[in-house]
Amino acid sequence: MGPLFFLIRRQLKNIIRGLASKPLALIGYILIGIIMVGFILLVIVMPSGAVRHGSNELFKAILTALIVLFVYFGLRQGIEKGSSYFRFSDVNLVFTSPINQNKVLLYGFIKHMGTSLLIVLFMLFQIPNIKNNFILTRYGVWIILLTALLYSLLSPIIGMVVYIYTSKSKTGRMMAKRIIDALAALVVVGLFISIITGDDYLNSIIRYLNSGIFSWFPVIGQLSTIASAAVYGITPAFFISIAILFGIIAAFLLIIYKNNLDYYEDVLAATEYIELKIKAKRQGRDVTAVGKKNARKIRSGFTASGAAAIFEKQMLEYRKASYFLFFDKSSFIIVLAGILFQFLMPGMAELKIFMILFFSAYMLFFFVIQGKWPMEIERPYIFLIPEPDGKKLLYTTLTENIKNFLDGILLFTITYIFIEKSIVVIFLCIISYTLYGAVYIYGDIVSRRLFGAVHSKAMQVFIKLFVSFLVLLPGTLFGTIAYFALASKEAAFLIIALWNLIVTALLFLASKGVFKHIEHS
Q1: 428 secondary structure, DSSP code
Q2: pTM above 0.70, yes or no
Q3: Residue 54, beta-bridge partner list
């Protein structure tokens, strides 16, 4: 293991040296560290149930549903592509070395533990929302983080084992898929039966997800039991579940060790998939679309010229990939999340429309930074088009703004049906939602101009989120104050929309210079 530990130490040293040679990135990471420490202290000391007191059953139902979804999609990926702890650098260097395969697997597992800790750190950002809506025990935060850590450790090794034993034949792979899909179908059928036979569909869903059925599913039952201890308290079942999960990890590692399986070839497909995802992430593309070739073939010619050709090109790309007009997967994710969000806020009828707008705008940020315009700014031809900078910027981002506008219409039309009956409020929400997207787009470009190419994509996302939060916060505060002072939703959303419009205009003017400095792209 000496050479492998040397590689791990060398990688850590290279990361530190890389930061030392990039002062801006180093300052950014120091700021992130300070913010994270402050955030951890805030999470620990902040009271539970500050906004409302959600039931323990609702808490367990939400976490059980999330765990079921994560495990299902993780198993599906394990069957199709496998799972891997490794990168291509490991394939080229470690796999070809005369080192025992078992030690190489342990090396990959140790490396993945660092990634697992990062996942736990990112989970911290969800804790305030959880504590605002549920009463956690004094150790509830640590239990939630422990659940995230255990899942992040379990997921890759389960995916690896599933892939190893199902990749031997096409028949075995198809059989495994059918078994997993059949189990998922049974879960969905049980959910529908519970809804149909119950009086209140929300309470029926909660009762179903709290039933003992899920405790019989390996991994799912244990993770759900551990997570629910955050509100119910620690019981003997908590320790038993932890022991079972560690036993599963040890058993799967032992299976790989003792059977001397040639997993090198098995993990190559998953390693290649991971590399493609990392490349897509660095380029600002949709990571979930990696490896998928489901675009429609269309026939159309270009009729526009100059900067307008970029807009027409993006329109053709949306026609190939979208379900209808600009509506794609991201549209339905945001709309579905917005619809479900209302059911999680009983007793907050007057504030539901605010929460739906802010929550949808938060989700929109992560879809906008993976949109089509970041890919255009990476390509050199846009800098060579002999058009004014403002015109090029407008046409480059126009499709994203139109898409956000149509998504807003879809989201808040459904909101009008279920929640808010004021046409004026709905119209202002659509405008505000569209302008949130515009702020994210032009704020991203301003971040590029200010900070250039920073150390990593994760740092870029953090900077963009931080800049967007700073410029949007005053409008949100002014709108909230106006609502409580004037008791008028129309006034509140009008202030938010006007502030977003002003910020969008200023960011647009500040963004035009990006075409004069190709090194900022």
Answers
A1: H
A2: no
A3: 134
Measured CA to CA in angstroms, residue 175 lies from 168, 170, 252, 331, 506 at distances of 12, 9, 21, 33, 57
Residue recorded with tokens 């804790």: 127
Cβ 287 vs Cβ 370: under 8 Å: yes
Tens-level pLDDT at each residue, the chain (521 residues): 676 677 767 777 776 776 666 666 667 667 767 877 777 777 777 776 666 677 888 888 888 888 888 888 878 766 765 555 666 677 677 766 777 666 776 676 666 666 666 666 667 777 777 887 788 888 888 888 888 888 887 877 777 777 667 766 778 778 888 888 888 888 888 888 888 887 777 788 888 888 888 888 888 889 999 989 988 888 899 999 999 999 988 888 777 666 655 556 666 666 776 677 666 655 555 555 555 555 556 666 667 677 778 777 777 777 776 666 677 777 777 777 766 666 655 556 677 788 888 888 888 888 887 766 666 666 667 777 777 878 888 888 888 888 889 888 888 888 888 777 789 989 999 999 999 999 988 888 777 666 655 555 556 676 777 778 888 889 989 998 988 888 888 899 999 999 999 999 998 888 876 666 555 44
Instruction: Indicate the residue type of 214.
Output: F
Q: What is the sign, positive or negative, of the torsion defined by CA atoms of 61, 64, 70, 73?
A: negative
**252 within 8 A of 158, measured Cβ to Cβ:** yes
Q: CA 220, CA 218: separation in Å to the nearest integer?
A: 6
User: Domain residue spans in the chain?
Assistant: 51-282, 308-520
449 within 8 A of 518, measured Cβ to Cβ: no
